[in-house]
């Protein structure tokens, strides 16, 4: 796996530092991949909501400054709870940003923040709006962009069901559409579930990128370490599958975030 960081861990530092500077600090702590997350891109973005756009010139400066790193672009897109136009300016701008930062393997991670009431029991429970993902993933595939999905209020098994169904509706997209599984999010929402068992059941081609974070006593912990979720077992599950992609430390913003990032890498390398 390629251990990395995400820019939303740097909310405290962004007002006084550029993204380029903060990426450099993450590199010094051992990061090999950076997830560039909408709303936490400083000089590399403008606007908000439907008016959000990546600043391509500034993103290019960041990528060129760190040729040894890999990057992906992440955005909040309510594509499970409302229809999004694949040809619309917002989605097209996101694809352009993903291609700029992603090099030979551009990747757009999409999270729908909609708080669904509960898990889906069958395909029939999937909202009609969510099936618009077929058009979005087809457009992304046409442009050579991998697309991964996340929703923190649905378990991994539900997101798997969704992606499998959308793949059947969008054969042109095929396996370029997948998931960003986050067992810690699931454990927070469904403490009696077994998210690691659901991760273990995932086919490798479904896993496009992963996030690591930790809870202790149900509360967010500032680094990846021992806690409510067995992160070393999670690491071992991914290694056993042959997953070699990015593993992002989605640790909370903190004055000591870079020390916590380094400690997280050291823990997973133990």
Question: What is this structure, in a nutshell?
Answer:
By secondary structure, the protein is of the alpha/beta class.
SSE layout:
Blueprint: E1 2-6, H1 19-28, E2 33-37, E3 45-46, E4 53-54, H2 56-65, E5 70-76, H3 89-102, E6 107-111, H4 133-142, E7 146-150, H5 156-169, E8 177-179, H6 183-189, H7 195-200, E9 210-212, E10 214-216, E11 219-221, H8 231-241, E12 246-249, H9 257-268
Parallel strand pairs: 1-2, 1-12, 2-5, 5-6, 6-7, 7-8, 9-12
Antiparallel strand pairs: 3-4, 10-11
Helix pairs in contact: 2-3
Number of helices: 9
Q: What number is the mean pLDDT?
A: 95
CATH topology, by name, is TIM Barrel
Strand order of the largest sheet: 8-7-6-5-2-1-12-9
Q: Care to describe what's here?
A:
There is one protein chain. By secondary structure, this protein is α/β, with parallel strands linked by helices. It has one domain (2-268): TIM Barrel, CATH 3.20.20.150. The protein is built from 9 helices and 12 strands. Helix 2 packs parallel to helix 3. The longest helix is centred in the middle third of the chain and has 14 residues, at 89-102. It starts with a strand and ends with a helix.
